[in-house]
Amino acid sequence: MNAHPYLRAFLAGSFVPTLILPVILAIFIVLRLGMQIPFPIERGLVFPLALVPCLWALWNMLWLASHGRTRLQLGLHGALLPFLLLPAGATAAACLGILSLGATGATWFHACYVPYALIAPVFTCVLVGYYLVWKYVVGFVNRVLGIAG
Questions:
Q1: pLDDT tens digits, residue range 128-148?
Q2: 115 phi and psi, to 5 degrees?
Q3: Is residue 149 part of a domain?
Q4: DSSP string covering the chain, please?
Q5: How far is it, in rounded angstroms, from Cα 145 to Cα 60?
Q6: Which domain holds residue 68?
Q7: 71-114 pLDDT per residue, tens
Q8: Which pTM was predicted?
Q9: Domain count, the chain
Q10: Which residues pair with 115 in a beta bridge?
């Protein structure tokens, strides 16, 4: 099955966030509208809902295009994606007034302060999570769709 490998890579890459982001949206709706929690996260929710599935898909296409030359494992390739998403998301959030960076931490929505000492271990957990999801879930979907793996 060699027809349209990049289309299949796009579909395989967008599979995980397309399944997970509606669950996050449902949780948000229950918390915000059902339980009346006053937290203005909807301003920062549109960016990931619109962009993350497409970025994952393009990242999987990049892996397919470069795998013949680099031989980089899919899990490691996926674990590199947060190194692009974090700065891009932080820059967009800072430009939109959602995030303010201080000397010792970041403040989200002018309400939630997170010290940098907490961001570092959370980012490490995110890297491990991305590695595992890309290695096992995206790798499985790539194999099902007949993409090199």
A1: 999 999 999 999 999 998 887
A2: -70, 150
A3: no
A4: --S-HHHHHHHHHHHHHHHHHHHHHHHHHIIIIIS-----THHHHHHHHHHHHHHHHHHHHHHHHHHHHH---HHHHHHHHHHHHHHHHHHHHHHTTSEEE-SSEEEETTTEEEEHHHHHHHHHHHHHHHHHIIIIIIHHHHHHTT---
A5: 13
A6: 5-144
A7: 899 999 999 999 999 898 888 888 888 888 889 888 887 778 88
A8: 0.84
A9: 1
A10: 105
